[in-house]
Specification:
This protein is of the alpha/beta class. Helix content is 53%, strand content 12%.
Length: 226
C-alpha cells in the first residue's frame, strides 16, 4: 500500500528545459543592453563560469545550482562591477523561469486523488530551497505539499543515500510504502529503488524503451491508479 508519493520538480512538475531556454534569452537581452555582449559571448561566459563553479566545489552540491555565485564569478572574470549586475542577472534569470513555468497536465488531478486517498505528498528535489518554493507557489500546488526535501537541506544531491534517507524520515513510512516520480533514471528512479522504494520514470514522450523501469507518460495515468 502506498502511503507517500515523492515528486521531483524540474522537468517533472513543469518543463524546465522550455522555461530555461526563455530565461536564457531574457538574460542574453539583459547582457546585450548592459555590456553590449552578443548572445554567443554571454552563453559562453556563463558556461565557463559554471565550469569554474564546479571546479571549486569539487563535488555535486546544491551550491552548484546557485546562479548568483555563477554570475558573480562571470562578472569578476570580466572585471565588471558586482553591484548591481550580479543580483540583476540572478533576478532576470529566475523571474523568467518562474514566469514561464507551466504545470504539467494531470498534476492537479493526481494530487487531489492522493489527498482523497490520504496519501502524503512530498517533494524530493535538487536545488536551493527558496527557488523551489517559488516554483511550487507559481505552479499553484505549494499548499498541497506535506513536506519538502531539497539537496540544500540534505547536504547531498540525488541519488545519494543521505538524501533519500531524509525523504523517508519525513515520509514516516517504510521504503516499500513510498513511491518516487521523476524525469531522471539515475537520480530519481535508480536512487529511490536503491533505497527499497518504488519509482516511476516520468517521460512524456512515447519513445521510451527502458526494460524493467515503470514509466508514466502523463500524470493522468497516476491519477487513474490512485
Amino acid at each position: 500500500m502506498i502511503k507517500t508519493i515523492l515528486l521531483d520538480i524540474d522537468n517533472t512538475l513543469y518543463n524546465y528545459d522550455s522555461a530555461h531556454e526563455k530565461a536564457m534569452a531574457a538574460l542574453c537581452d539583459y547582457c546585450k543592453e548592459q555590456f553590449d555582449w552578443e548572445e554567443d559571448k554571454t552563453k559562453n561566459l556563463i558556461k565557463e563560469a559554471q565550469q569554474e563553479q564546479k571546479k571549486r566545489l569539487q563535488k555535486d552540491s546544491s551550491a552548484l545550482h546557485n546562479r548568483l555565485i555563477r554570475f558573480q564569478i562571470l562578472l569578476e572574470k570580466e572585471e565588471k562591477a558586482i553591484a548591481p549586475y550580479a543580483m540583476e542577472m540572478y533576478q532576470c534569470y529566475w523571474n523568467a523561469i518562474i514566469y514561464h513555468a507551466q504545470i504539467e497536465p494531470g498534476v492537479h488531478q493526481m494530487l487531489q486523488k492522493a489527498k482523497e486517498a490520504h496519501i502524503r505528498i512530498g517533494i524530493a528535489t535538487d536545488m536551493t530551497a527558496y527557488i523551489q518554493y517559488r516554483k511550487l507557489a507559481k505552479l499553484g500546488i505549494l499548499s498541497m505539499i506535506d513536506f519538502i526535501v531539497t539537496s540544500e537541506e540534505a547536504g547531498a544531491e540525488k541519488p545519494e543515500e543521505v538524501f533519500y534517507r531524509l525523504c523517508l524520515e519525513k515520509a514516516k513510512c517504510r521504503p516499500e510504502e513510498c513511491v518516487m516520480i521523476g524525469d531522471s533514471l539515475k537520480k530519481d528512479v535508480k536512487g529511490a529503488q536503491a533505497m527499497g522504494m518504488k519509482a516511476f520514470w516520468y517521460h512524456p514522450q512515447e519513445d521510451a524503451n527502458q526494460e524493467c523501469v515503470p514509466i508514466i507518460h502523463s500524470f493522468f495515468q497516476l491519477a487513474e491508479v490512485l
